[in-house]
């Protein structure tokens, strides 16, 4: 049976569904844009140690510039931009956004002190706020219901691919040319891609009605109340934000953890490959996060679409189980004596930590009314980024400094204590994902 016939029988198709050839092209372009998004977002994580030493920063400042500084305007600007995307021209919004964050990434290379770098990261967050709310609502409009998780999983492959590229490129370029050049190399591709997206992407609402004229529009607070009243939406937003504290909170400190606790072994391994420690760790962590994360993103979406055909609860069961299994993995990895085993072992929680992306973004879109789906993504990202991207790294950095100050730990053991402590948030996330099983079938929309 054709996808169109299935949609007509089920009533689950999108009225804006696009031809399969164009849909693939559009999702590919959006995935490239999201990949560049994460290159610019993540490159600072492998640069944290050289930036810390040159600008004389504490761990809490590293957490602030890599987390809260980025998330501040990302979260605040995301909702009004998404409100515009709910009625406006989403391809143009995406194009302007990618140009803005890329230009600010290049500007970070010129920072001479902590406040200047902080402002640059705030600008990156402001630009990146415009991409995902518009992109995910476009993908949902383009795709039939039974393919949404898989389509969104392709888009969210930009997370591990961009992380891999950002970490590997950032570490290698920084070793040879310095951390400032790494910011320039990260930002320039987005500046060049912005006009391509403006011309290549199609706004499907144009074929249905005039943009901005499709009926009465809910007020801002009414939109938020409507979304937050949906039980499944509310639970998965909170669950993902808590899970994100673990993933996003760890990201700026993993390279520092290995340098501080396994410095001699890292230097020896790097030399055997003709690299310096930062380049070696950037490549190693990038491969671990990128390749394993890509497997996790694809696996989560594929399993959810396959199992969800018979039971919609699979869309929240899979993230719940993955979150629960990640805890023992982190505890083991941060206590291993071998840096090789620890780097290889990180692949397991990296797979598990990425499995929520396709199922949960598909679910948050599918339980939300179609006319406010960009706003649904923006509110989702507002909570996720404020708590996980904004406060996660700050929490890890503060706990690390606190362990050193209170217990007399050295910088390496203090960071280990912090990372293990924060990993205990994963079971709480699993509980909230699991709780959404009770309401997802009732809340699901076409």
TrEMBL record:
Keyword DNA damage assigned to the entry: answer is no
Q: Which InterPro entries match?
A: MFS (IPR011701), MFS_dom (IPR020846), MFS_spinster-like (IPR044770), MFS_trans_sf (IPR036259)
Specify the domain of life of the species encoding this protein: Bacteria
Query: Which residue range or ranges hold the Major facilitator superfamily (MFS) profile domain?
Result: 26-441
What parts of the sequence cross the membrane?
Answer: 21-40, 60-81, 93-112, 152-173, 179-201, 235-258, 278-300, 312-333, 339-357, 378-399, 419-436
Name the UniProt key words of this record, in alphabetical order: Membrane, Transmembrane, Transmembrane helix, Transport
Asked if the keyword Membrane belongs to this entry, the reply reads yes
Molecular function per GO: transmembrane transporter activity
Where does it reside?
A: Membrane
Task: Name one matching Pfam family.
Answer: MFS_1
Membrane topology term: Multi-pass membrane protein
Q: Which GO terms describe its cellular component?
A: membrane
Q: Which PANTHER family match?
A: PROTEIN SPINSTER, SPINSTER
Q: What is this protein called?
A: Putative MFS family arabinose efflux permease
Query: From which organism does this entry originate?
Result: Novosphingobium marinum
């Amino acid at each position: 049976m054709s996808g169109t016939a299935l949609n007509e029988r089920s009533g689950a198709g999108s009225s804006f569904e696009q031809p399969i050839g164009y849909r693939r092209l559009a999702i590919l372009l959006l995935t490239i844009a999201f990949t560049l998004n994460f290159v610019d977002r993540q490159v600072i994580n492998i640069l944290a140690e050289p930036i810390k030493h040159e600008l004389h920063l504490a761990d809490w400042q590293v957490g602030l510039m890599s987390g809260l500084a980025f998330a501040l305007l990302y979260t605040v600007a995301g909702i009004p931009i998404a409100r515009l995307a709910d009625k406006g021209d989403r391809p143009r919004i995406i194009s302007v956004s990618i140009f803005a964050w890329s230009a600010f990434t290049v500007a970070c290379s010129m920072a001479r002190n902590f406040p200047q770098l902080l402002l640059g990261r705030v600008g990156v967050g402001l630009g990146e706020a415009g991409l995902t709310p518009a992109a995910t609502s476009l993908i949902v409009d383009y795709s039939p219901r039974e393919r949404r998780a898989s389509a969104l999983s392709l888009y969210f492959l930009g997370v591990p691919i961009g992380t891999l590229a950002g970490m590997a490129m950032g570490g290698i370029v920084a070793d040879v040319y310095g951390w400032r050049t790494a910011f320039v190399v990260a930002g320039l591709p987005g500046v060049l891609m912005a006009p391509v997206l403006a011309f290549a992407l199609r706004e499907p609402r144009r074929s249905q009605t005039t943009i901005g004229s499709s009926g009465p529009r809910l007020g801002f607070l009414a939109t938020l109340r409507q979304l937050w009243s949906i039980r499944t939406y509310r639970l998965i937003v909170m669950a993902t934000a808590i899970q994100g504290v673990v993933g996003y909170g760890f990201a700026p400190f993993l390279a520092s953890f290995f340098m501080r606790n396994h410095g001699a072994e890292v230097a020896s391994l790097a030399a055997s490959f003709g690299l310096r420690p930062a380049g070696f760790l950037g490549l190693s962590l990038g491969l671990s996060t990128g390749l394993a994360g890509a497997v996790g993103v694809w696996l989560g979406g594929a399993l959810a679409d396959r199992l969800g055909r018979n039971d919609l609860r699979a869309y929240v069961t899979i993230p719940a189980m993955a979150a629960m299994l990640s805890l023992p993995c982190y505890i083991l990895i941060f206590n291993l004596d071998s840096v090789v085993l620890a780097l290889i072992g990180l692949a397991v929680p990296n797979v598990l930590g990425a499995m929520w992306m396709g199922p949960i973004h598909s679910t948050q879109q599918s339980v939300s009314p179609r006319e406010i789906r960009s706003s649904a993504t923006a509110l989702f990202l507002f909570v996720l980024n404020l708590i996980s991207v904004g406060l996660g790294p700050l929490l890890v950095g503060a706990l690390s400094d606190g362990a050193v100050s209170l217990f007399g730990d050295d910088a390496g053991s203090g960071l280990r204590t912090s990372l293990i402590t924060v990993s205990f948030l994963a079971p709480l996330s699993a509980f909230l994902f699991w709780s959404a099983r009770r309401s997802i079938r009732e809340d699901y929309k076409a």
